[in-house]
Amino acid sequence: MAHPIKRETRHANVFTRRALLMMGGQVALLGALAAKLYQVQILQGGRYATLADENRISARLVAPPRGRMLDRFGVVLGGNKINWRALLIAEQTTDSAATLAAFSRIVPLSDYEQARIEREIHRHRRFIPTMVREFLSWEEMAAIEVNAPDLPGIVVDVGTSRLYPFNELYAHLVGYVAPPNEDDIEDEPMLALPGIRVGRAGLEKYHDDALRGRAGAVQMEVNAFGRVIRELDRQEGVPGQDVGLTLDAGLQQAVARRIGEDSASVVVMDCRNGEVLAMVSNPSFDPTLFNSGVSPAQWAEWTRNRRAPLINKATSGLYAPGSTFKMATALAGLAAKAITPNERISCPGFFDLGDTRFHCWRKGGHGALDLRGALKNSCDVYFYEVARRAGIDRIAETSHRLGLGVMPQIELPGARPGLIPTRAWRHAQGKAWNIGDAIVSGIGQGYIQVTPVQLATYASRLATGRMVEPHLTRTLGGALQLGVQAADWPPLDVPDRDIRLVREGMWQVVNEPGGTAPQARLPGEMRIQMAGKTGSSQVRRVSREQREHGFKSENLPWEFRPHALFVAYAPYDTPRYALAVVIEHGNAGAAVAAPVARDIMIETLNRDPAGRIEPPGAKLADVKSRAAG
Amino acid sequence: MPGLSRADNSTLGRWWWTVDRWTLGAIGTLIGVGYIMMLAASPAVAERIGQSRDIFILKQVVFLALAGGVVVCVSLLSPRGIRRLALAGCIVALALTAATLVVGMEIKGARRWISLPGMSLQPSEFLKPCFAVVAAWMISEGRRSPRFYGIPMAVSIFAVIAFLLKSQPDIGMLAVVTSVFFIQLYIGGLNVFLVGIGTLGLGGAAAAAYLLFPHVQMRVQKFLHPTIESAYQPTMALEAFGNGGLLGRGPGEGSVKDHLPDAHADFVYAVAGEEFGLLICLAILGIFAFIVLRGLLRLVREQDLFIVLACTGLVAGFGLQAFVNMASSLALIPTKGMTLPFISYGGSSALAVALGMGMLLALTRRRHHGDAP
């Protein structure tokens, strides 16, 4: 610091001159900011407020949120989630292929998707957006927004989509939704709103009106481009109602786990009021795949699969009931006074009608049996004889009353009525009624076809003596629906004495030594007894040669093996739960279906869903948070 | 800080009576505004990405507290200490910036970040203040002793930095660092002729980029001729300002934070505009202007060339960064990912800006003549 004064002077000069210029520059920049702020916030802000010429008010309908589907304890089986979508507007890009290629580098598109997008671009008019990709994650959405300059024509918007947290477990019950088609929109203009979905299957379809709600209206200020500036007025629509189902999600899960890989169907009901607690049809499919479009390969896999994953076997699967039908034959015989309870019919192992011989399942025959004994041993010859005496029309009338062969009132579109043949039905086909057809009907074979849900209803009606109907809806928008009380259902109009005999027979099947289904006995420590009936229904006639050469159904190809069935209810003395198990081509009802039925009944009794207001093992807080979520 | 008497001779006491308390106060105010904006903008962002509502707030409270600490601690240093700190910081930050090209974390198409537990570090943020001080030292030293090749050394370091930032790429940061360096050369008394050549060279480079690189051309075209889709972010931001008007819609009443991906960082000024209105926006602008102008005015009396250049660089960098952010939000310039000092969310940004402001305060402390610079 030899010459401090001199240095100071020099710098001061240099600095002030140049620094002033720089300061001026900074002030100019900041001033530009302030000016722009003033322009945007005051000058143009005034324009926003006073609706300048290029702005206008536009009234729009807004889609109400779709109602949720809950199980009986509030677990969400079908809900809503946010859905970010990338759209391509063809007229805003010169080269849509290049845009798609650039998009593909950020969010990879499969060949199948690219083909679909290109097809749609050609089909649509150029200003109509084409869906490029739905269900973007937040990261993908942000990456697209940030790279927007490199993606001309791509816009991101937000909608909602349906969420099925349990995927395939409820596919056949809850069903799925899809965008409305043109016919739907003609009937109901609200459906033209973007993002709205209509139920296409299952309860989503059945309760579509309640779930859909009513559209709200919003008055919005839009500018000359149609861009929304702000909302002026909003009339909230009515959100769709929540549908509370009779199902118990925990039981449903347990049933599905017990069935495992089998092609099978199980229905568990509260036999006092017909509430369906679990209804499983296996295999199943993932309904969320319909949200984003099912690939042709997946569709082919589903439709070609001979185990028919797309079909709800519980309501649409038709099976000969086999021996599980014998209670209906018995009641028909008693009603027709064709037999008395204690009359014994002798079984030599076969039944001859003219020169046709019908066999009992037991080669040597059962000897003389009364009604209860015939049920306990599942003697075919006894019921051939009852059917012969009672006649097919009597059997059909009793079966219909028990819920077999008539359309159940279950809320699932696609449910089938099945068939109990009558003379009139056969005549309508232009054929004569053959007495042999009545004989095989006595053991639930021949033309008879029923569904698992009918079998569960049948077991419920036998157990309670009331005409309960299977149903899945417990509450709508929180209001309890009719049918919860046992007294809501009319009595069956079958003499008490008759029905008690049949129940005793069903009790003996499971609990007496020599009954056909000891595998279904509940463990002694439960102190609860189950009543039930096995069934093995042939899908193909067994020829004489086969019978004489030591025929074994296990050796048949899968699709020709008999179905294994079991119907049951428990507790025997105060019936609460009824169930039906059908295992396709499972061979023997006693060996295959009965253990499944027993395990599911144990699970049902332990959970006791009909006797609780919250699921077993749940803390109240969990229940509430689930109901809220 | 009451209780510090003028006679107090402790480090803290001397600091309190020599530091520029007006600037210190302005910085404190900015940190406070930053905290309030974080309360307004970040819960919506956090909710959208599925985080706890408070996650950004908690993180930023920690960062802002740390930033305040950094400002005070750094401003305690002597000018010589600042020079050493800047030199060390410059070397470390340069190495880390180079490392981002290899181990960097790619976010939205650029590699600017190094992932650390709890935060991601953007080393180029720290490079900016450190390089300003280092460049100031080299230029001033070069003028003092002819055998020290100050300007060529500074230019070569700048070239390395420019190359790294271009590779990341981080064009916004590159523009700020370049502008600051040129301002320093200019204030440092570089021949007007050379300054003119440099300016022409920059303009030529920009024109060449526009003509040679189609994506640069497209971005400029998009900016000049915006459409509804291409200008989604700036349009949303402008609408937010428009909605805010003079007094704003009220804290938490804005909606832009629900629509813009980076509402809590790059577009925090738009959130402020929508929720707090023109007056608060002007006030924020005023605080930045105050810090910049006061920093420059104080230099008029300064005799040490190093301090003049360093402070000019620090203040210019700070002001330009604020300008780029606010101007992006107001659609005056194309959108650039640059934070608003102390107000935007971001740990690297808050700490780096605090480092720069700490250095500024340290260098502008009153010294007796004869104190070692």
Give a short summary of the structure.
Chain A is an alpha+beta fold.
Q: What can you see in these coordinates?
A:
The complex is a heterodimer of chains A (629) and B (373). Chain A has 629 residues and is of the alpha+beta class. Chain A has two domains: 60-245, Penicillin-binding protein 2a (Domain 2); 249-611, DD-peptidase/beta-lactamase superfamily (Beta-lactamase). Chain A has 23 helices and 21 strands. In chain A, helix 15 packs across helix 18 (435-441). Chain A starts with a helix and ends with a helix. Chain B is mainly α and 373 residues long. Chain B has one domain. Chain B is 69% helix and 3% strand. Chain B has helices at 11-18, 21-48, 55-75, 79-103, 123-144, 150-167, 171-187, 192-212, 214-224, 232-244, 268-299, 305-329, 347-363, and strands at residues 105-107, 110-116, 119-121. Chain B has a three-stranded antiparallel sheet, with helices on one face. The interface between A and B is large, with 51 and 57 residues.
Beta-sheet strand percentage of chain A?
15-25%
Mass-distribution shape of chain B: globular
Q: What does the average pLDDT of chain B come to?
A: 80
Q: Could you tell me the radius of gyration of chain B in angstroms? A: 21 Å
Q: CATH homologous superfamily of the largest domain in chain A - what is it?
A: DD-peptidase/beta-lactamase superfamily
Overall geometry of chain A comes to elongated
Main beta sheet of chain B: strand number and arrangement? 3 strands, antiparallel
**N- to C-terminal distance of chain A:** 76 Å
Q: Can you tell me the CATH class of the largest domain in chain A?
A: Alpha Beta
Integer tally of domains of chain B: 1
- Say how many strands of chain A there are: 21
Radius of gyration of chain A, whole Å: 35 Å
Low-confidence region ranges of chain B: none
CATH architecture heading of the largest domain in chain A: 3-Layer(aba) Sandwich
DSSP summary: helix tally of chain A: 23
Taking the alpha carbons of the first and last residues of chain B, their distance comes to 26 Å
> Helix- and strand-based class of chain A?
alpha+beta
DSSP strand count of chain B: 3
